[in-house]
TrEMBL record:
Domain of life from the UniProt record: Bacteria
Gene source species: Candidatus Neoehrlichia procyonis str. RAC413
Protein name listed in UniProt: DUF721 domain-containing protein
Pfam families named among the record's database cross-references: DciA
InterPro entries cross-referenced by the UniProt entry: DciA-like
Lineage: Bacteria, Pseudomonadati, Pseudomonadota, Alphaproteobacteria, Rickettsiales
């Protein structure tokens, strides 16, 4: 029986799964930036925002490097909180990627399961 340091095997598995999914993005016409946001949402924005919101899609206009992120939130109260947190969320995404990947965020109210 082989023992691993706590967290090391999970990190390796996450990296392996993420690299596999990113290789498949071109086949399904999904941008790698969008997929990285979907896969790493908790790490990018933090636990508080990630619990009440979920990224749905990232759309780019006119071949720009910066897009519009569509977020789903559970209720109106959370939507107001996210509305005020939009500049912070955009900044966190920019820090994560090293460039301004998102220039605007649109909020949709949906049931998150």
């Amino acid at each position: 029986m082989q023992f691993y340091k706590k967290g090391s095997s999970y990190k390796k598995l996450k990296i392996t799964v993420e690299s596999f999914i990113l290789k498949k993005c071109n086949e399904y016409n999904i941008s790698k930036t969008e997929m990285r946001i979907l896969l790493n949402w908790n790490d990018i924005v933090g636990k508080d925002i990630a619990q009440i919101s979920r990224p749905e899609k990232l759309s780019f206009l006119n071949n720009s490097n910066s897009g519009i992120l569509y977020l789903a939130v559970n209720n109106g109260g959370h939507a107001i909180y996210i509305q005020y947190a939009i500049p912070t969320i955009i900044e966190k995404i920019s820090v994560y990627f090293g460039f301004k990947a998102v220039h605007d965020i649109k909020i949709k109210q949906k049931n998150l399961i």
